[in-house]
Amino acid sequence: MGMGRAFVALSGDASSPFWNPAASAAIDRTEVIAFHTSLFMDTKYDCLGVAYPLDLGVFSLSVGRLGSDNIIGRNENNIFTGEFSSSESQYGISYARAVSFGISGGITLKAANQRIGEMSGTGFGADLGFQYKPSFLDNLTLGLAFNDLLSPGIKLESVEDHYQTLSRFGIAYSRGLSDKISSLLSLELTKSSGRGAGFHSGVELTFYRQYALRTGIDKGRFSFGGGMVYKFVKLDYAFESLENLGGSHRISFGFTFGKSLSKGREETRARIVERERENWLNEIRSEQERRLEQLIAAADSLKELGTYDDALGYYQRAYLLDSTSVKARIMSDSMIALVMERAVLSAGDRKRRELIAGRIGSAMDDFRKGYFNESIAKLNLLSEIDPGNKSVIDLLNTVGETRAKEIGDRAKTAGRYEDEGDYLNALSEWNRLLALDRTNNEAAARIAELNKQIEADRLIANAVTALENRRYMDAADYLNRARGIRPESETIKALMNEAMAKSAPPTTLEDIKTSSADWENYLLGLENYQSGDYSGALQTWENLRTSYPNNSELDKNIDQARQRLAAESGR
């Protein structure tokens, strides 16, 4: 009321079903609102609304009563007959949801009751409403509603009266004036059957997103009001002047509770992503368990054949795959003891036996820890000390083969992590591989690339934070650096468009015309669009938007091309 009753295009609350049921589609948390309006001659208008948002839409219940009590009754002879009451009540259940392309729709099914003294009648009807928020023009909303589109018929005695259908069309535009102040303009035209059109207008200023001042014109009558929001509670007051009847006061009180629907969706998406990641990790763990069983089974077979060097290689690979495997650890230690003893006994003479016995333990200790390069270096030294010692040569071959197979396993594991976008674990695996083979060019290249991708993720996260804090130039800087790493990233392009649109001054077609090359590209996009090449048109116009941000014509064209592509994909 404080904005001249120009509300058909405004964002909704739990009272929206009384004006435009589609406005309820934007409600994010369960909300309750009640308001009381004091009119002339002790007439009162009281309403209660409850809105409950779900994934499939927003459901609302509403109750309203307009009535006067203690009315003096007189008969045809002007003789006092007592006091009576007169009232009109409405009970409604509403449903609203966002459809697509910025359109929301809503419907209210309602029962209307009229009572005068002892006479009473009830009828049923319906309201229908729509809102449209064009993507090519931020902060603009169009509203259209038909109250009593299905008109309730009420019969008190012998004649049934029908409510008149009231059509509403309005437009609302909001704009931030500073970081602390925002403005809202709302205009509305109403028309009911058998009556002339009415014009409503209102303006609102909001301070610190908590306090609001409002004023408006309601069919020539002046109104004003204000409100405040504190956490989950909101309180509003409005006044409207009534010619020859004084004024009308309205007080409303509302509160929200429960979980935010949008946050709930984000949490659901996060749980799905986490569940998918956990499933993927479970698959990796299951594969590792199968691999562990295969390695131990192969090692057991080789041990039974007496090829202890080969058995040692498989037991050690099993231990490196799962250091908690007791069997892999015990059998690896057992095989190490056997091959060490055999290498010492195979020495050519006593002096060589003493040298090998003193040094082979260190080589095998490195092998046990996965330090294959160090172990190979020490075994090479032992083979030079005793060139004819076949046991040392066999052991050297076992360590080399185990190292090569371990390198292959690390590369495969790193590749799987990369495919899943888990760059940190992939980086860890490539680093472990590079520690085994310092000359591995693939590992060095992948490590360099993964470090870039991790840096890109960090820059994008910083850009999102900067956008949330309205530091648009900082966001653009982060995104430019990230785009250098991922030039084809659609996420970076979308965020960059948002940052540029919010920070740059508006541009027009005249600005594009100043560059003959850019103007030719713009016209090429139109040709592509008209010929049905919506993807080509979209790419051309999006490339132009990086040079001409905040351009309403480009934004409109891009939005239309996307809608066409979405329609094609849905066929």
Topology readout:
Layout: E1 30-38, E2 44-54, E3 57-74, E4 80-100, E5 103-116, E6 119-132, E7 140-150, E8 153-155, E9 160-162, E10 166-176, E11 181-192, E12 198-207, E13 211-218, E14 221-230, E15 233-242, E16 246-257, H1 261-304, H2 308-321, H3 326-345, H4 350-369, H5 372-385, H6 390-419, H7 423-436, H8 441-468, H9 472-485, H10 490-503, H11 509-513, H12 516-530, H13 534-545, H14 552-569
Antiparallel strand pairs: 1-2, 1-16, 2-3, 3-4, 4-5, 5-6, 6-7, 7-10, 8-9, 10-11, 11-12, 12-13, 13-14, 14-15, 15-16
Helix pairs in contact: 1-2, 2-3, 2-6, 3-4, 3-6, 4-5, 5-6, 6-7, 7-8, 8-9, 8-10, 9-10, 12-13, 13-14
Written description of the protein model:
- The protein is of the alpha+beta class.
- The protein has 3 domains: 16-258, Outer membrane protein transport protein (OMPP1/FadL/TodX) (Porin, Beta Barrel); 266-439, no CATH class; 504-571, Alpha Horseshoe (Serine Threonine Protein Phosphatase 5, Tetratricopeptide repeat).
- The protein is built from 14 helices and 16 strands.
- It has helices at residues 261-304, 308-321, 326-345, 350-369, 372-385, 390-419, 423-436, 441-468, 472-485, 490-503, 509-513, 516-530, 534-545, 552-569, and strands at residues 30-38, 44-54, 57-74, 80-100, 103-116, 119-132, 140-150, 153-155, 160-162, 166-176, 181-192, 198-207, 211-218, 221-230, 233-242, 246-257.
- The strands form 2 sheets. It has a 14-stranded antiparallel β-barrel with strand order 1-2-3-4-5-6-7-10-11-12-13-14-15-16. It has a two-stranded antiparallel sheet with strand order 8-9.
- A hairpin with a 3-residue loop joins strand 12 and strand 13.
- Helix 1 runs antiparallel to helix 2 (308-321), helix 7 (423-436) runs antiparallel to helix 8 (441-468) and helix 12 (516-530) runs antiparallel to helix 13 (534-545).
